Amino acid sequence: SQQGEEDPQALSIQEGENATMNCSYKTSINNLQWYRQNSGRGLVHLILIRSNEREKHSGRLRVTLDTSKKSSSLLITASRAADTASYFCATDAWGNEKLTFGTGTRLTIIP
Amino acid sequence: EAGVAQSPRYKIIEKRQSVAFWCNPISGHATLYWYQQILGQGPKLLIQFQNNGVVDDSQLPKDRFSAERLKGVDSTLKIQPAKLEDSAVYLCASSRNKRGYEQFFGPGTRLTVL
After folding, report:
1. Which residue among A42, A45, A102 places its CB closest to the CB of B42?
2. Helix (H, G, I), strand (E, B) or coil at A56
3. How many independent structural domains does chain A possess?
4. Which residue in A12, A44, B77, B91 has the fewest CB atoms around it within 10 Å?
5. What's the CA gap between B34 and A7, in Å, rounded?
6. What is the pLDDT of residue A6?
7. Which CATH number do you get for residue A72?
8. How many CB atoms lie within 10 A of CB A103?
9. pLDDT of residue A3
10. What's the farthest any 2 CA atoms get from each other in chain B?
11. Is the CB of A45 less than 8 angstroms away from the CB of B41?
């Protein structure tokens, strides 16, 4: 079963705008990661945030984590056509090292 | 460093046939994963190896799927016999160690079962 659920399922924005994707999960976690998948390719790791962290930045990416609401958000600023991809959150939990992926958000950047 | 290698990239078989996938992880990575990704869904872990031992195979359909990791390096995933619902992309990934490390994914093998 999927632990995480991304929202929205699909998102289309104009190039240059900011894109925000949300991830909700069901059980307490140890770490949360975000991955990007371009069409027909493998996944690429974007960022990892630990349960005791609230925010992390990496280039144009900003991730927040709210463990009280069991949710995370991924913000991509100043979007580019190359950001068109599916984005997945993935969690692992105490006592369960398995990384469980969400259902993904399909992001389309319109040039 | 070289990435995770997988072969073949595409495979088409008839139901009830057998198929095998191969994965070569990043050198030095202790942990290797096989995922199944059905179209429109996130990857689902099938099996996780730590060196050449199995850490988690709770979601591996053991009546038809098998996997091994030879000498803690390369790995093969086999399906025998295949069913229509096995049509998916099979992704191999590796990481330096278990929990808390980013995973590096290969390009995947797209399997179509007719």
Report:
1. A102
2. strand
3. 1
4. A12
5. 26
6. 84
7. 2.60.40.10
8. 17
9. 64
10. 39
11. no
Task: Please tell me what DSSP assigns to residue A52.
Answer: T
Measure B47 CA to nearest chain A CA, in Å.
9
Q: What is the mean pLDDT of chain A?
A: 92
Closest CA to A49 of A26, A69, A72: A72
CA distance A23 to A25: 7
Q: What is the pLDDT of residues B20-60, one digit of tens each?
A: 999 999 999 999 999 999 998 999 999 999 988 999 999 99
Q: Give the DSSP letter of residue B80.
A: S
Residue A86 in this model has a pLDDT that exceeds 70: yes
For the record, the structure tokens of A32 come out as 């949360």
Please give the residue range of the domain that contains residue A70: 4-110
Q: Residue B23 in contact with residue B92, Cβ under 8 Å?
A: yes
- DSSP 8-state code for residue B84: G
Contacts of B104 in chain A (CB under 8 A): 45
Q: Please, which residues bridge with residue B78 across strands?
A: B20, B66
Nearest chain B residue to A38 by CA distance is B107
Q: Which CATH class is domain B5-113?
A: mainly beta
Residues A41-70 have a mean pLDDT of 95
Q: Which of A60-69, B3-12, B70-79 shows the lowest mean pLDDT across its residues?
A: B70-79
Burial zone of A42 (CB within 10 Å; 0-12 exposed, 13-18 middle, 19+ buried): buried
pLDDT band at B1 (very low <50, low <70, confident <90, very high): low
| pLDDT in the model for residue A1 | 46
* Domain residue spans of chain B: 5-113
Q: Take residue A24 and report the two structure tokens written for it.
A: 């909700």
